[in-house]
Amino acid sequence: MPSSAWSRSISRVVSPARASSRPIVASVTMPSRRPSMPLLDATGAITDRWVRLTDDTPLPRAGAVILSVARLKAEFDQLPSHGLLLFGVEIVPEVRVDTLTPWLQRLDLIAIPFKSFTDGRGFSIARQLRLAGFAGELRAVGPLIADQFAYLKSCGFDTVQLDAATFGRQPSDQWLAALSAFSGLYQRSYGGPLNILAARRAARAKAADVSERAAAE
Fold it and tell me: What is the DSSP string of the chain?
């Protein structure tokens, strides 16, 4: 157990912000994803529908985007609520969970970085977020190892995103084997009432509905 860690041009602006700032929403195609960032869940390798946006990239009308903490804080009150766009944020290991509380009900994903497989801060952050009622996807990002998968799950993580080199050393079959081998050693350690599980199911249903509506547009 660990001890402690997209492009086409903009065609038109739909909902501009103040004249002194960049457009908040634009009719654009989704930026291309980072190359080769394998993503795993309990079933193995999966397709990543989330896209990280730089702070100066206008929001698309639909899709699933990951923002920086700075951008989320600056633009939170202006984020569209039409339901076609899901929002995530990538935090830093030094974050205080209570500073994220005002955003939790609006976020569908929180990405938690690990600087190394011995960095245990991410595990603690995940548990705190679940206890605070966050029902969206928790994503671990970094050079983790397969033997940590069961513990990641027990702390509340849904997915793990690895760099290509790490995934090359330990492909998805090794992660699934480790999950199976170690899952009996860990129970859900973030605690919380059973209604958190119901909330997470509702969050997944919401994400599926948004995808269907976006595809129909």
Answer: -------PPP-EEEE---TTS--SEEE-PPPPPPSS--EEETTEEE----EEPPTTSPBPSSEEEEEEHHHHHHHGGG---SSSEEEEEE--TT--GGGTGGGTTT-SEEEEE-SSTT--HHHHHHHHHHHTT--SEEEEESS--GGGHHHHHHTT--EEE--HHHHHHS-HHHHHHHHHHHGGG----S---THHHHHHHHHHHHHHHHHHHHHH-
